[in-house]
Amino acid sequence: MKLVKHSSAVLMSVILILVLALTGCSGNNKTNDEASHANAAKETNASSEPAATGGDAKKLDPYEVVMVYPDAPQSDLASVQTAMNDYLNAAYPELSMTVKLNPIDWGAWGDKTNLMMASNEKFDLFFTADWLGYNQQVLKGGLLPLDDLLAEYGPDIEAVEKDFHEPAKRGGKLYGIHTHQELGGSQGIYLDKALVDKYSMDLSALKSGKVEDLELLLQTIKENEPDVTPLVAPSFPLDAYYTSGTLDTIASAAAINILDTDPSSYDVVNFYETPRYKELADLMYKWFKAGYVNKDALTPGLDAWKKIQAGKGFALVGDMEILADMEIGSVSKAPNASIKAGREMIQIPLNIDRLQTGKMTATMQAISKTSKDPARAMMLLNLFFKDQKLLTLFNFGVEGKHYALKNGQIALPEGKTTNDVGFYHDIMWQIGNQMLNYTREGEDPNKYKNYEKFNEMISSRAARTFGFIFDPEPVKNEIIAIDNANKAFVDGLKSGQLNPEENLPKLLAKQKAAGVDKVIAEAQKQIDAWRAANGK
Amino acid sequence: MKTNNRTNPFIILFLTVFSLSCLIPFWLVFMVSVTNEKDLTRHGYSFWPNHFDWEAYRYLLHDSANIARAYGVTITVTVIGVVVSLLITSAMAYSLSRTEFPYRNALSFYVFFTMLFSGGLLPWYLVYTRFLHVQDTLLALIIPGLIGGFNIFIIRTFFTNSIPPSLVESAKIDGASEYRTYFSIIIPLSLPVMATIGLFTIVSYWNDWFTSLVFINNEKLYSLQYLLNKTLMNASFLQSIANKAYSNTANVTQPLESIRMAMAMVAIGPLVFVFPFLQKYFIKGLTVGAVKG
Amino acid sequence: MPVLRQLLKHRALVILAIPGIIMLFINNYLPMFGIFLAFKDLNYTKGVWGSDWVGLQNFKFLFASNDAWMIIKHTILYNAVFLLINTVLAVLLAILLNEVRRKVLSKFFQSAAILPNFVSMVIVGYLVYGFLNPELGFINKSILEPMDKEPIAWYAEPDYWPYILTIVNTWKTVGYSAIVYLAAIIGIDQEYYEAARIDGASKWKQMTSITVPLITPVIIILTLLAVGRIFNADFGLFYQATMASGMLKETTEVIDTYVYNALLVTGDTGLASSAGLLQSVVGFVLVITVNYVVKKISKENALF
Predict the structure, then answer these.
(1) Signal sequence span per UniProt (chain A) (predicted)?
(2) CATH topology of domain C65-301
(3) Cα distance from A267 to chain B (closest Cα, Å)?
(4) 3-class SS of residue A102
């Protein structure tokens, strides 16, 4: 009996020690953590205080606006945050506002933001986009409607974005504010200039805007340069070039064909059933057979630029840089592409976007439902649309420490590289008015002037469906099933590995079985209702 | 006692081939990690590169302070986790292995149920952050791996099958308590299985990156695998969204393939030495026969 | 109270089990309320409890595709084949490893066998790619090209993949299971073998009548536990090793990859909880059934 007691005492004490060790361990970590994040304490203070109502502008209670956005970690984040707060305090004392930067790794973004919203964590400004679950966030009640806040506290946002809110509305209310930047893009081809010169290629045929006219050039390379793949991809004509040039996409396989159709036509058709789709799939199949395209094009993460850099590629289909004179078929030097490829590259736009609903929801800022003072969050967001200094701090860091101004452009401080400067990111597209930003050294100093000009062109050509928002909920399961059917064919067709004669009918049959007709009918129904309501 | 000291040569041959098939990929990972990037683009992977290039390791060295700290986190978590886990798991398995223990079936079911059903990510997160408040502590990395039905059942099976009930009986007659029986008879007799489960637990703690992703915001507490993984995850995520968001401004550069492989080497490296160390518990002789004799 | 008295009588065993019971309760049972999410339309404002019930709405997407049965069939077949091959090879490997007398060799073989388990699936994906890359892969470049054969577009040809995935899975997991079996074999009382040798039993005879029967309980437990996961595919294997190539779907789509894609398309996390619950229920029913049969045959080998 004695023995029993003795050993049970031993066991209990072992367990006790372990428990103590573990809790002690956690206690230590907590204090360390708090010490290193001095702001955490501030945050709890701020949030426990009653929220200030933005209405009486006399003296606002101090409030900390937490900004959540995706970014790679920056080692000097704390000093940038301090600089932003010092600046806010000096320039806008009446707002008595501080910011807390809470970047989240790209790879963790989806999981973490879902958990933060679902567990009602407090944060204020939040980056979102249709491709990052904007619809679900609105549907699940994670975001605040912004219409009133915008009207009251967002004059500088309205000054540039007034006409572009419609696409972000859900159920008639606005939940996201588009970053002011280029309103669309352009697709075309990049060519290795050295090879173009070597064979004195004639590029004038490409003025047609048809990717088919690239064939002769590819053939020349194939015949004369056995080590060079004529066209390197993972980006194909059947991506944005097809979509933007042929369709107003709605959702899933539903789209409106705008190529050679009456401009007043709103007939919803299948994305994969247009004549142009077949043409391009045939073309790619032909090119693939002829050996014009690299065989590993579908490898995830494949970087086509690396192939060009290694001298193994000649042409590349993709999104164009926005330069001074964007015009279909115009040949110009592509500065960024030349850097990426390590050799001189030229670009030839083949298509220029129209103003599309989807683009307007591709980069937005929203305000979380858990914000204790949404008005202040909106005031801060407004500052990003008006205050170049604040924007520069956020985008480029502290002058002298993280960047130096050279001829009005942002350069790295003497002796620093992007790796060790402590604060370097390219996320200007996430917030505010981009046109207020500095350009980086090496970029066209007129970059944002070019953007303004480009925007004029784009906004003068609105898509037929601009402003229409498709509600996918009634056909959600069909959309999943169609996507599942697509997976087996779409990549093979766009890369030319599958014969369209044989596989396109198979794809269409599978889509039919998955309920594509129902999705198209639903899209037509919603389009018709939208037209009736908007007098289109 | 006649023991045959020569092993059948066919067995040796078979095992050699098998071992090579396990080792060659590692060789390949290492060789890719020291291959010049241009060669990789031009010629693909090779078992002996044309040009050796240690750039990938130099790149990682650049981040050596963080990597060293992450090693510290992972080692701490793994060591504490394995010791506590083995204690808790084997103690529970011992109770479950004793036929006279009432409700052992009900308790087995209690364990088994957790192997199939789980509440999912969100409730898990809520329990850890709202109830236990362990976010941003090492505990958040330790607790999830402390116990698992699989390990309990494996150990229980060993206890029931390799330890004759008579042994426990005779210990009892000698006046030994359950604790004493468990610590001084059962555990020493079960070293091979403890070593096995210990190894599995080490590997799962070592390779865990998801728990860091969910619960750790303080980068000083990132585990090694998360630190390495997130670079890859960030890159592949950015790649996948490049055409959705911003091809013009978001300059997406994939980490070099060699860096990917070098990261794998850095992450696996220390694990390779763990097993030979544990192998001394795989020695025959610590068996029932030896104890009885 | 008889219950209490019984527990009190075996209080030592109860105390030994308590830390485990508590840990399981915290880690697994507390979050179990999440199962309700499979039947709810989660709304962040209303919270987990306040969100609306939607019945089986979240399950519909699983059967929305006309490929649903193909996907389920793949999941079960792959798992069954993996289980069979893995068990046979792992037992064989363990027996062979146990035969090696030289310590150094034995250590070397054992270490090599578990190495593949340390590599993450992402890296495995790249290794497979090193072999199968259509332009530069070893198989196309170093084997088919010298033999004057047409290169194969591996990532576009679904027919090869059941074999490739089986090989990769076996390579990655067999050593791991073998170590468990080896631990069981080492635990076998040497007296059995002594007696058998005295009777003049051959090695083969020793293996079939001593080794295998004595490690059967371990085989049964590992198999039972694997049966519970027959509806759950190894996502890493089917997603990373195939480089997520859509053209291989015909032979490689499994439940977990289907659910993953559905999540990508809709962003609705409710879908994942319903799929997970369905997988658990199927596994649960299967294990209960198999366990019942095992219990009939030999009580001590059953799970509970």
Answers:
(1) 1-31
(2) MetI-like fold (1.10.3720)
(3) 26
(4) strand
